[in-house]
Design brief:
alpha/beta
Length: 361
């Protein structure tokens, strides 16, 4: 199983290049830039890294076709691939934070963040599985380098002929960010790989079965279908700093932000604790935007169990427990694990390079 890293969106392009150089030296397979509604552009931020490295794969995670039309996504991907001599990749998502910022995904009534104007209506893109599939098909057509008369999909349309003039380097890897069963099966049928988000070990058997179902519908089985998983890395030499970071970022773990009760029940003692989580959901979010890491109304023991189940946190004494978890990820079928770095990403990267990579080889 390979190791990838995912960077925060506030890492400057210069810092991205420095981290990419170090990651390449350590043997990291790939580096993902984050795509948020603020901070640096997820494609442009990788340009200095493309010039400074020669092996590591580079790409944004994740980009939605409802924020960037698939044709323009192909243009950006073509450019990054050219600059990196065939080392580009992209992960396509049906959702994401930018959709919320531009009004696609929003809560009815109330506010999402302090100072945010009340939202009157909840809006979602229609047929998201179909829309992501069409985006993947357009990207693959562009990657082929062959002439296309256009594309007439149910969601996305390209009304003029197009051809992408790829250099002699290989075309980029195209991932589908998939969590639900339909999206997983579609991604396995169309994309080069799947990127899960915050999947725990016990979620993988069902997910892998959905991948096998999708792969069976392809005309030919791919030689190297990739299966990755976004996973939060908070391990630090200072345990207090690690747990603060993990508490602050807990709202972004998939089970919490999606209020996935079936997953959360694995870390609770009884239904009353689930009620506590749901009743104090806004306090998880407040712990992030205030940068306090203080989740009001939720007992520390419950918070710690959630952190232990949904991320890697603690100090060096906790490392072997996390390595056991990573070995289980590998045995479950992951080809790569994408570790999200937060505060002091260079320190986190070097800990991964010195302790995680050797243990998984």
């Amino acid at each position: 199983m390979d190791i990838d890293i995912i960077l925060e969106p506030d890492v400057t392009p210069t810092q991205v290049a420095e981290l990419a150089v170090e990651a390449e030296k350590l043997g990291i397979r790939a580096l993902w830039s984050s795509n948020y509604h603020q901070q640096w552009d997820c494609f442009l931020a990788l340009a200095p890294a493309a010039a400074a490295t020669s092996k590591i794969i580079l790409g944004p995670l994740a980009v939605s076709p409802w924020e960037l039309h698939p044709l323009k996504m192909a243009n950006a991907l073509l450019t990054l691939n050219e600059m990196s001599n065939g080392r580009a990749m992209v992960a396509v998502s049906g959702g994401g934070g930018i959709l919320g910022a531009i009004g696609w995904r929003a809560e009815t009534g109330g506010t999402i963040w302090p100072g945010h104007h009340p939202v009157k209506k909840t809006r979602y893109p229609d047929r998201r599985v179909r829309g992501v599939r069409e985006c993947l098909e357009i990207l693959k057509q562009a990657r082929s380098g062959e002439f296309s008369p256009g594309y007439d999909g149910g969601t996305f349309v390209i009304s003029r002929p197009f051809i992408m003039n790829w250099a002699e380097s290989a075309g980029p890897l195209i991932y589908s960010c998939s969590s639900g069963p339909q999206m997983i099966r579609m991604g396995a049928r169309v994309a080069d790989g799947i990127q899960f988000s915050d999947f725990t070990v016990d979620m993988l058997p069902e997910a892998m079965e959905n991948i096998r179902t999708g792969l069976a519908k392809r005309d030919a089985a791919p030689d190297d279908f990739r299966v990755g998983n976004f996973w939060a890395w908070h391990i630090k030499k200072d345990k207090e700093a690690s747990m603060y970071e993990a508490r602050r970022e807990l709202i972004w773990r998939g089970a919490v932000i999606g209020k996935e009760e079936d997953i959360l029940r694995k870390f609770i003692n009884d239904e009353s604790e689930l009620d506590i989580i749901m009743d104090n959901w806004d306090n998880f979010r407040k712990a992030c935007w205030t940068r306090s890491g203080n989740i009001e109304g939720v007992p520390d023991d419950l918070v710690n169990r959630m952190i232990a189940g949904l991320s890697s946190a603690g100090d060096m004494s906790d490392l072997e427990t996390e390595l056991d978890r990573f070995r289980q990820f590998k045995q479950s079928g992951l080809t790569e694990l994408s570790l999200r770095l937060h505060d002091d990403p260079m320190e986190g990267l070097r800990l991964i390079g010195r302790h995680v990579l050797p243990a998984l080889r």
